[in-house]
Design goal:
Two copies of one chain form a homodimer.
Chain A lengths: L7 E5 L4 H12 L3 E8 L6 H10 L6 E6 L33 H15 L4 E3 L15 H14 L1 H4 L5 E3 L7 H10 L24 H12 L11
Parallel strand pairs in A: 1-2, 1-4, 2-3, 4-5
Helix pairs in contact in A: 1-6, 6-7
C-alpha cells in the first residue's frame, strides 16, 4: 500500500530495534515522516546518538528531539541511577518499567501531531516478546486513542488521531525479518538497558535477551556488539 | 469529610484561581498534599511565581515544579509568542488552546503519583465558565482515568488512580465562594493570559473575563490588579 502524496505520519522513534523497524514500515508506505525522539535522560545517551545516526541516512525525514527529564520523577531502573538494571528475570512487571512513560510519550506525540496537522501516530509497542509493561498492550493503545480524540481540538472536532502499532502482535524474529526486508541496518540500533561506557550491550538485561533470541529465531546474524 | 491520616493526594496546581481553590478543597479534606506545578514556558513567569507565593503559606505541602518546554511544540497563543492572545471573543475553541496540554499534564501527574504511591489526582478543570477547551470536559477526564489505569503498573494491578475534579460543574462565582470560605486569598492567584511586564492583568482576555464576572456574580470585591 502506498498512502499517496503528502500523507503525513509521526513516528515515535527511540533508535531501538522496534521503533527503527516501525520507521521503515511507515516509510515503505510512502508517508512524509516526522520522527519524534524523546530524550528523557535515560541511563545512557547512546539511544539518542543511535536515533541521530539512523536518521542521518533519511534526508526526507523531519527529526525532532524533545527533552523531558524523567529522572526528576524516577521510580525505574532506567530513570533512577540508584536502582540497578536486573540481570536475572523477575516475576511481574520489572523495575525497568518507567511510570506512565508511553502515556507521556504519546501525549507529547499527539501535541506535536496536532500542531503539525498529522493524524497518524506510529509507535513500536509489542505485546509478544516484551517485558510485560502495561503501556505496551493493545487495550492501553485503544484507550489512549479514544482519550486523545476527546482531549484535543482536532479529535473533538472529528478529525481523529489514529495510534498505529504495526508490531504489536509480532514476535521479535518477525520484527527483525520485516525490517531486514525493508533494508534496516540493525547494527545502528540500540536496545540494551545497561550499556557499557563505550556503548557495548550487556547481553543480560531483558531487552538484550529478547533481541538476541529474536536474531537467533530469525536465523540471522546478530550485528550487536556485546560486552566480552 | 476528613480522609484520615496519611491519605495522600497530588494536586495539579498552576497558581491560578481554579487550582488554588482545588488545593484548598483537598487540604480541607485532610490530605497530605503534593502540589505539582508544570512550568511549560507559558507566556509569563508570574504563574510560577504565584504558585510559589501561595505554597509559601502552606508549610505542610510538598511543592514540585516540573519543566517541559511546550514552546518547542507551539500551536497556541500561550506557547507561541508570534500568536497574539485575542481581546475579543471568538467562536469555537480559541487560539489559547494548547495542543493536548491537560493530557500531558495529567500524564506527568500520573507518573509522579505512581512513583509517590498516590492514587488521587486533583485537577481544577471546569466545564461551565470556561473557554470550551476539549480537555476540560468530564468525558475527557473519565476517558483519561480509564486509560491511565490500563497504562500504569499500579492501575493495571488493581490499585487504581482516580482523577478528581471538584470544580467541573461549578460556576466561577461558586468556585470563588467555595475558596473564600476555605480562606483562599485570591489576590495571590494569576489567571490572565496576557499579563503586562509588571504582572498586571489585561482585563480583556477570556480568562480575565471569566474571573471578573465570577467576582461580580459572587458579589465579592475583585482583588485582581488590572492594567489602567
Amino acid at each position: 500500500m502506498n498512502v499517496g502524496d503528502n500523507k503525513k505520519a509521526l513516528v515515535l522513534f527511540s533508535g531501538g530495534l522496534d521503533s527503527t523497524t516501525v520507521l521503515a514500515i511507515a516509510k515503505s508506505k510512502g508517508y512524509k515522516i516526522t520522527a519524534l525522539t524523546i530524550n528523557y535522560k535515560q541511563r545512557h545517551d547512546y539511544e539518542i546518538l543511535a536515533s541521530k545516526n539512523i536518521i542521518a541516512s533519511h534526508s526526507d525525514i523531519n527529526h525532532i528531539i524533545f527533552d523531558i527529564d524523567l529522572t526528576r520523577i524516577g521510580g525505574s531502573a532506567l530513570t533512577d541511577s540508584s536502582l540497578d538494571v536486573p540481570k536475572e528475570e523477575s516475576s511481574g512487571i520489572p523495575i525497568t518499567y518507567v511510570p506512565a512513560r508511553n502515556t507521556i510519550f504519546l501525549s507529547i506525540a499527539a501535541s506535536y501531531a496536532e500542531k503539525l496537522k498529522i493524524r497518524e501516530i506510529y509507535i513500536g509497542v509489542n505485546a509478544i516478546d516484551y517485558s510485560g509493561y502495561p503501556d505496551c498492550r493493545p487495550e492501553f493503545i485503544a484507550s489512549f486513542q479514544e482519550m486523545i480524540n476527546l482531549g484535543t481540538k482536532s479529535g473533538s472536532e472529528g478529525s481523529s488521531f489514529e495510534v498505529i502499532t504495526p508490531l504489536i502482535n509480532m514476535t521479535k524474529a518477525e520484527i527483525i525479518k520485516t525490517g531486514l526486508k525493508l533494508g534496516v541496518d540493525y547494527s545502528h540500533t540500540v536496545s540494551c538497558y545497561s550499556l557499557s561506557d563505550n556503548g557495548e550491550a550487556c547481553g543480560n538485561c531483558d531487552s538484550c535477551k529478547f533481541r538476541k533470541k529474536g536474531f537467533m529465531d530469525a536465523s540471522v546474524d546478530d550485528p550487536t556488539i556485546y560486552q566480552k
